[in-house]
Specification:
This protein is of the alpha/beta class and 277 residues long. It has helices at 2-14, 18-24, 29-36, 44-53, 59-73, 87-98, 117-127, 133-146, 164-168, 174-187, 240-256, 263-274; strands at 99-106, 157-163, 193-198, 212-217, 225-229, 234-237. Strands 3-2-1-4-5-6 form a six-stranded mixed sheet, sandwiched between helices. A hairpin with a 7-residue loop joins β4 (212-217) and β5 (225-229). The N and C termini lie far apart (47 Å).
Length: 277
């Protein structure tokens, strides 16, 4: 999706039509459209030919984009979980791994990137009650592997806004929740994690439609992507009017939520009141 966006930008800047681009690489106009939407794989030779057609002569820029083409065709770490991973979520994992900033709003669960193993297991069991122990272990392992991106030398910034309902809902029982809330308090000490809670007394708020995530990338030419997960699929939005709508909603959520510096105090109070030792 990232490479496709770059190619679309370059094609628009050069004035080449999709039909003309397709002719250059012996493909149809619809294939160019699918490439630009990130819905098909890339041949490095085709990308090189398109870059030449679009007038990209800078060696460094060409090398960067050709590397992106190679990376796009390389299986990510999540492919080994293909037996428990739906195809629509594989796309998200690739985008999440490439993001410089991850902003999310959660209403029902603690954000996946901040879940403890025990809490993650309880969440998995809610959606896969009939799954065997091995499958559950793999699903939990997948979630834990995702969290490795926060421990990279240059991790993305994670800014999560969580409804109070999510940290009150007793997923997995009192012991699991106490451990989870303690882990969230620890997470707030990380310089690249910002966590805010929307208390019940805030009333209604901007994101009445439900949870969503906004991904922002290091290359400013790449648009943000809004990710909305459903029970059996997901929606990816990158149109400017959609992005603007969700960006405004996220900003309003951050204003309506308690400030980040109050989060440890709020979580500790909830933990000790609801799940005392």
């Amino acid at each position: 999706m990232l490479l496709g966006t770059q190619l679309r930008r370059l094609r628009d800047a050069s004035g080449v039509t999709r039909e003309g681009a397709g002719w250059e690489i012996r493909a149809s106009e619809s294939k160019i459209s699918r490439m630009e939407l990130g819905r098909v794989g890339f041949k490095e030779r085709d990308v090189a030919d398109l870059l030449s057609l679009y007038g990209v002569t800078d060696a460094e820029e060409r090398a960067s984009l050709l590397k992106l083409a190679r990376d796009a065709n390389s299986p990510g770490w999540w492919h080994r979980y293909g037996d428990v991973l739906p195809s629509w979520f594989q796309s998200y994992l690739g985008l999440e791994a490439a993001a410089a900033l991850i902003r999310s709003y959660e209403v029902q669960f603690v954000p996946g990137l901040l879940q403890t193993p025990a809490y993650a297991r309880a969440v998995v069991l809610l959606g896969h009650r009939g799954a065997g122990a091995e499958e559950v272990d793999r699903r939990v392992g997948l979630r834990m592997q995702r969290q490795e991106l926060l421990r990279r030398p240059r991790p993305p910034q994670l800014w999560a806004v969580v409804d109070e309902a999510a940290v009150r809902r007793p997923i997995g029982g009192a012991e699991v929740m106490r451990e989870q809330l303690t882990a969230l308090i620890e997470a707030t000490r990380s310089p690249h994690v910002r966590l805010q809670i929307i208390p019940f007394d805030a009333g209604g708020h901007a994101a009445a439609g439900g949870a969503f995530t906004i991904l922002r990338f290091g290359d400013q030419d790449l648009p943000d992507i809004v990710y909305i997960e459903q029970l059996t699929s997901a929606i990816y939005l990158d149109k400017r009017e959609d992005l603007d709508y969700y960006a405004v909603a996220m900003e309003r959520l951050c204003v309506e939520a308690e400030p980040p510096e109050r989060t440890p105090e709020l979580l500790a109070k909830l933990r000790d009141e609801l799940y005392p030792q």
